[in-house]
Each structure stands twice: as structure tokens, then as C-alpha cells.
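Suppose you are handed only two things: the residues of a chain and a line of SMILES describing nicotinamide-adenine-dinucleotide. What would the bound structure be? This form records exactly that question and the answer produced for it, so the two can be stored side by side and reused later without any lookup.

QUESTION INPUTS
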Amino acid sequence: MLGLPETAGPLPHKVLVTGATGRVGRVLRRKLAGRYQVLRLADIVPLEAGPDEEVCRLDVTDPATIAAALEGIDCVVHLAGQAVEADWTVLFDKNIMGVANLFEAAREKGVERVVFTSSHHAVGFYRRDAVIGNDVAPRPDSRYGVSKVFGEALGRLYADKYGLAVACIRIGVVRPRPEDLRHLSVWISEDDFARLVARCIEAPRYHYLMLYGVSANPRAFWTNPDADKIGYVPQDSAEDHAAGLAERPTGHGAVTALFQGGYYCAAEFAGDPSQVD
Ligand SMILES: NC(=O)c1ccc[n+]([C@@H]2O[C@H](COP(=O)([O-])OP(=O)(O)OC[C@H]3O[C@@H](n4cnc5c(N)ncnc54)[C@H](O)[C@@H]3O)[C@@H](O)[C@H]2O)c1
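ANSWER OUTPUT
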């Protein structure tokens, strides 16, 4: 189903997915079912275990619950937290302290890998006519984007200083189909997202990866050299769904249309677009 080689039985990995009741977590739950020796699902929202699953309650603001969730795990896929723009207090609790708690617990428990879900909003103020790689300076387009830059930097610290293998995925947008014109550049299909995460879990040992979570879109804003290193080969293209798509209507439409982050750039915008080159 994933377009990956069939396995004779579950692979030996012991995987924890945090934020498992969310939009992306539900995709991974479905698509990674039965693939690993342990698939443990965690969320602040109660979960009921299905066949071949373990579940537990996790609050990223409570280190004791993280430590319990990580017991016996060798790879964490960290989705839990604040997934859209919010006030600083919310972002601080979930995406700053929550992510710090997660990495620290992973270090203490001897977890080998952390797959951290960042966002393209970490680099949203690059212009749409630029194609950027994974080595550009951050240009967050929101408080949320800044919180993702923090997670990426923390991942780098835990890779370099403590020897964790860390993969950061700057997700474009995971949806069944692209929903507006910008999505033709940033969309990743649910199948491709599962393929990418599976490669992050299963690829031979790496140190630190900065990946874009994107399908094989001809209009992509990004090159993805680290994806090649782990053998991620997207199978889907947003272009197959292009008919009838239009720019998402927002205030500051010109700002939305100019930058990769789209309406995240336009929200609260009071600057001079010509200075944001
Ligand atoms: N969906 C996308 O297209 C997209 C795009 C870019 C980045 N991302 C990132 O991917 C991850 C998942 O996104 P999503 O769309 O599934 O978000 P979501 O909001 O649907 O899911 C987030 C999950 O985190 C859980 N959660 C919230 N607070 C928590 C806490 N204190 N402790 C434990 N769990 C808590 C929620 O219950 C929920 O299940 C996020 O980190 C998000 O920033 C998603």
C-alpha cells in the first residue's frame, strides 16, 4: 500500500507516533498499521488500541507522560502540538517547551531517532519565484513558523551534541487533494507522506536531515537533497489535480500571492513587500 517493498512480517522497529488522533496522525496510523514490531500511538486525547497497536496518553507539557510513552521505543515520530498559528502562550507550551521536553526525554531514554514534523512556514517568506534548498536561512512567516524553527534548531543540537539521529520534515500540506493554487507547489499526498516517514524510520543510520514533505510536484518551491539520501521517491503529483484550482481568497491578496507561505504571510501583514526580497 505504501509503495515500499513488502516485508515478510513486521520490521523490528519500535515506533512511537505522538499526536496520533490529529489529521496527520490518523494518516500514519492507517498506513503504517502492522509494519513495525511496535507501533505505539500517543495523544492528549484518549485513544483505543486496534489490532497490533499500543496506545497511551501523552501531554507534551508533562515530562512524566513523555517518559512513560518513550519506554522501550527506538524511533519517535513527533506530531503532537500546535499545528496552526496561535498566541505565544499556546505556542510556548506546546511547540517550545513541549518539543524541548520531547527531545530531552528521548535523550534520557536512549531513543535512537526522532522524526520532527516542522513546517514550510519556517521558510514562508521566501518568494514563490525562488526555488530554495534545505540550506537556506529560516524566514518564518508566523509565530507558529518561529516555533518550528526552534524545533529544527533543537533537533540539530540533539544530533550534534547527544548523537540522536534527527530528521526534520518541513511539511508542505498533507491533504487527500490539493485545494488551492499554492497547494500545486506545496502539496504532499497522504501516501507520499507515509512513504517519507517510513524512509525516515527505516533508512540506514543518519545524523541530521532537513527534508521537505512534498510530492513530485512540477511547481515545487523546493529542492530536496536529503530526501534522495534516504531513498524517498514520491509517487504522486499535485498537477494531476490542477483543474479548477484558484488562489485562496484572503485579505492582502498580493502578499499571499508573492510568498511561499501564502496566507500565513498575509495575516497581520503591515510591512513593505518590496523590502522582503
Ligand atoms: N497537516 C499539515 O498539512 C501540516 C503541515 C505542516 C506541518 N504540520 C505539522 O505536523 C504535525 C501534525 O499536524 P496535524 O495537521 O495532524 O495537526 P492536528 O492539530 O490535527 O494534530 C495535532 C495533535 O496533537 C495533539 N495535541 C495537542 N496538544 C497536545 C499536548 N499538549 N500533548 C499531546 N498531544 C497534544 C492533538 O490532540 C492532535 O491529535 C504538527 O506538528 C504540524 O505542525 C502539519
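WHAT STANDS OUT: Residues 19, 21-25, 43-45, 58-61, 79-81, 83, 94, 117, 119, 171, 173-174 surround nicotinamide-adenine-dinucleotide (CB under 6 Å). The mean pLDDT is 96.
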